[in-house]
Amino acid sequence: MLIGVPAETVPGEKRVATVPAVVEKLVKLGFSVAVQSGAGDAANFADDTYRAAGAEVVPDAATLWSRADIVFKVRPPSPQEVGLMREGGMLVGFVWPAQNPELMQQLAARKATVLAIDALPRQLSRAQKMDALTSMAGITGYRAVIEAANAFGRFFNGQVTAAGKVPPAKVFIAGAGVAGLAAVGTAANLGAIVRANDTRAEVADQVKSLGGEFVKVDYEEEGSGGGGYAKVMSEGFQQAQRAMYAQQAKDADIIITTALIPGKPAPKLITADMVKTMQPGSVIVDMAAEQGGNCELTVPGQAVVRHGVTIVGYTDLASRLAKQSSTLYSTNLLRLAEELCKAKDGVVNVNMDDDAIRGLTVIKDGAITWPAPPPKLP
Ligand code: NAD
Q1: Is Acetylation among this UniProt entry's keywords (predicted)?
Q2: Torsion over CA: 36, 327, 258, 262 (sign)
């Protein structure tokens, strides 16, 4: 079967779904691979490196989509791209079926089979090698700290210099899931004093092991909802949390927010009043910007200055590290391809009896199969 890799079309998206090193491995699995000319340019993978790895380079998107049996993509396809797709073809990539009902209908009308990498049952340990949400979150957490350091006018680490003593920066991280923990580790490695909070108290040890201090909200309430994810907390908890965050905001030089609740708008944790209490030159990086933001003053996609504080609301943090994110993402897709093609004969078998494959198959031969029943845990 022919796997096609188009250039991403969302403006500013620099990632590519397959890198040359993964092309070689797909060829070993028996697949042919076609890449749209220039698809890897923004991630520093030139056409020639794809050719050297065994891919065919095709000139345009229309040729690519019409010939491919399976399309590997990063972002959900646009209506135009769905229009180019071969009837009965297969699509693998981020789809976000809950947020994109029209796209689901368009893909179903093409009689497509669609594997949404964002619908992978992450709680299955054997699914971890395919978990692109975790790979991307690790990168965005790292990049959030780099963006913060870039916007901050001081060192992260404390220094004693001939010109005077410099205190370490204080970083507060709201939400310590995959991205938040990556931010804790990165900021601690740069030498900052790092504190973090999450409604799921079980992450406290992980924060500590990465060099941070876990700060508790003074209110007893279990924060875990279904599948290890967060839930909306009671009004009482939220009040106590706001009081604690107000204290942290006064003290912190940098706040990085990552708090998300599946299927809900991002919780507003940093109010405009809290921003006013921060020192001029402080920085907030709001990683929840795309889902409405954790800070009241965030402008999605932009860095703005409010009350002397730089508030970074970039929604393309993974794309800003395009070579790294493309490499990890395409390795996640390779692991999926290995699961789909156990015979290594270049033919995929979408086994709906396999919990991991069932979970991410959101459309099968034109029939919408999302949401999947919960997987059976061992
Ligand atoms: P996410 O991006 O949905 O949320 C980010 C973090 O925000 C979470 O840790 C959440 O608890 C926190 N949060 C939500 N509301 C908050 C609030 N009001 N205040 C403070 N924090 C708040 O989550 P994610 O990083 O994709 O994953 C969350 C968790 O899911 C992981 O940390 C892990 O425990 C679990 N997970 C499990 C597996 C697995 O079992 N293999 C794989 C991936 C993730």
Answers
A1: no
A2: positive
Structure token digits, residue 243: 């009081």
Q: Is 179 in the pocket of ligand 1 (CB under 6 A)?
A: yes
For a ligand 1 pocket test, name from 209, 218, 260 the mutation site with the most ligand atoms within 8 angstroms of its C-beta: 260
Please tell me the pTM assigned to this model: 0.96
Can you give the pLDDT of all 378 residues of the chain as single tens digits? 999 999 999 999 999 999 999 999 999 999 999 999 999 999 999 999 999 999 999 999 999 999 999 999 999 999 999 999 999 999 999 999 999 999 999 999 999 999 999 999 999 999 999 999 999 999 999 999 999 999 999 999 999 999 999 999 999 999 999 999 999 999 999 999 999 999 999 999 999 999 999 999 999 999 988 777 899 999 999 999 999 999 999 999 999 999 999 888 999 999 999 999 999 999 999 999 999 999 999 999 999 999 999 999 999 999 999 999 999 999 999 999 999 999 999 999 999 999 999 999 999 999 999 999 999 877
Residue matched to tokens 């093409």: 110
Ligand 1 contact, 134 CB (< 6 A)? yes
167 CA to middle of ligand 1, Å?
31
- ipTM given for this complex: 0.94
| Residue 214 Cβ < 6 Å to ligand 1 | no
Query: Residue 303 and residue 276: Cα distance in Å, rounded?
Result: 17
Decide if 210 contacts 189 (C-beta within 8 A).
no
